[in-house]
Amino acid sequence: MPVPSFDPGDPLGLDDLLDPEDLAIRDTVRAWAADRVLPHIAEWYEKGELPVLRELARELGELGALGMSLTGYGCAGATAVQYGLACLELEAADSGIRSLVSVQGSLAMYAIHRYGSEEQKLRWLPGMAAGELIGCFGLTEPDHGSDPAGMRTRARRDGTDWILDGRKMWITNSPVADVAVVWAQTTERPDGVRGFLVPAGTPGFSAPEIKRKWSLRASVTGELVLDGVRLPADAVLPEVTGLRGPLSCLNHARYGIVWGSMGAARTSFESALEYARTREQFGRPIGGFQLTQAKLADMALELHKGILLAHHLGRRMDAGRLRPEQVSFGKLNNVREAIGICRTARTILGANGISLDYPVMRHATNLESVLTYEGTVEMHQLVLGKALTGLDAFR
């Protein structure tokens, strides 16, 4: 068999790792994003809005992209690798679109699917999988981000009901969500932290939108305010107590980021590569200069190493062998390298790199949020440091 020619779009031949169904899912999501997101994303980003969120959610539901790796209840039952490929293509359009899908599927739906009762699953999951219902995930608080054990949101019993008081911050989808998965510290031991399903419109519950963001502008972000919110006993997720519940959901979402961040990096790299081939200075395309080629080579190296790492973690997840520490490897490396690729791409585009006529600065600013959420750089470094040394440096 002859050696295939070198493909600048797939220099390592990583498509060889994918079967026809993988490729079909990837290409379907890529085509949808090209048709429904790319023509409008610069305008949405500039205005700081996502006016067609529910319309896009329903279309993503039709694609099977919501709760994609879950089974039953209208979910697609896709492999982890297929879900990852979808995340990559969605974030190649914009991190806000991938965040919509991740929060819906890997956080809210995953929590209900894994820890909910059968009644809760039947009530919420089919509509969420179809994009008819929107969910959000309330863990982060104004004063407690990296340390969820310090959460101040409280749940106390009142007869058979629960009363919730507290506040959550930086919650994707919350202003438009039909249901919020809220994690609260119960006042009774040994219950500890419990998860609650809070329907929109419940008295005492509100979700004001957060404005004045300079990152993830094409994403709806808000707070969760709980002021004496009364919930029936069947609102609690029955199958988990303690922080392992929300942390397991976060681990699932981080896996999608490992892939998604490489989508933002790929788009920025491709933009820089095309620009370098056509932009002329000193009488020749800037891609013909050694320093520009060095930048492009380094960007391609980190981009495709990151995609290869994502593939490896996806195969481990499909085999049931993926550890949280390994997800930390992927999240830490891929988001950090994606930001580096975007910044280098910006230098190749020069002043044009800051214009919304090109995608690079938009991806770079979005990735600053992705770098922070689902675990900061420092937290993942400490996760890996503990795993490598056996010594806990968190406190």
From TrEMBL:
<keyword id="KW-0560">Oxidoreductase</keyword>
<keyword id="KW-0285">Flavoprotein</keyword>
<dbReference type="GO" id="GO:0004361">
    <property type="term" value="F:glutaryl-CoA dehydrogenase activity"/>
</dbReference>
<dbReference type="InterPro" id="IPR006091">
    <property type="entry name" value="Acyl-CoA_Oxase/DH_mid-dom"/>
</dbReference>
<dbReference type="GO" id="GO:0000062">
    <property type="term" value="F:fatty-acyl-CoA binding"/>
</dbReference>
<dbReference type="Pfam" id="PF02771">
    <property type="entry name" value="Acyl-CoA_dh_N"/>
</dbReference>
<dbReference type="InterPro" id="IPR052033">
    <property type="entry name" value="Glutaryl-CoA_DH_mitochondrial"/>
</dbReference>
<dbReference type="InterPro" id="IPR009100">
    <property type="entry name" value="AcylCoA_DH/oxidase_NM_dom_sf"/>
</dbReference>
<dbReference type="InterPro" id="IPR013786">
    <property type="entry name" value="AcylCoA_DH/ox_N"/>
</dbReference>
<dbReference type="Pfam" id="PF00441">
    <property type="entry name" value="Acyl-CoA_dh_1"/>
</dbReference>
<keyword id="KW-0809">Transit peptide</keyword>
<keyword id="KW-0274">FAD</keyword>
<feature type="domain" description="Acyl-CoA oxidase/dehydrogenase middle">
    <location>
        <begin position="136"/>
        <end position="229"/>
    </location>
</feature>
<dbReference type="InterPro" id="IPR046373">
    <property type="entry name" value="Acyl-CoA_Oxase/DH_mid-dom_sf"/>
</dbReference>
<dbReference type="InterPro" id="IPR037069">
    <property type="entry name" value="AcylCoA_DH/ox_N_sf"/>
</dbReference>
<comment type="similarity">
    <text>Belongs to the acyl-CoA dehydrogenase family.</text>
</comment>
<protein>
    <submittedName>
        <fullName>Acyl-CoA dehydrogenase</fullName>
    </submittedName>
</protein>
<dbReference type="Pfam" id="PF02770">
    <property type="entry name" value="Acyl-CoA_dh_M"/>
</dbReference>
<dbReference type="GO" id="GO:0046949">
    <property type="term" value="P:fatty-acyl-CoA biosynthetic process"/>
</dbReference>
<dbReference type="InterPro" id="IPR009075">
    <property type="entry name" value="AcylCo_DH/oxidase_C"/>
</dbReference>
<dbReference type="InterPro" id="IPR036250">
    <property type="entry name" value="AcylCo_DH-like_C"/>
</dbReference>
<dbReference type="GO" id="GO:0033539">
    <property type="term" value="P:fatty acid beta-oxidation using acyl-CoA dehydrogenase"/>
</dbReference>
<feature type="domain" description="Acyl-CoA dehydrogenase/oxidase N-terminal">
    <location>
        <begin position="20"/>
        <end position="132"/>
    </location>
</feature>
<feature type="domain" description="Acyl-CoA dehydrogenase/oxidase C-terminal">
    <location>
        <begin position="242"/>
        <end position="388"/>
    </location>
</feature>
<dbReference type="GO" id="GO:0050660">
    <property type="term" value="F:flavin adenine dinucleotide binding"/>
</dbReference>
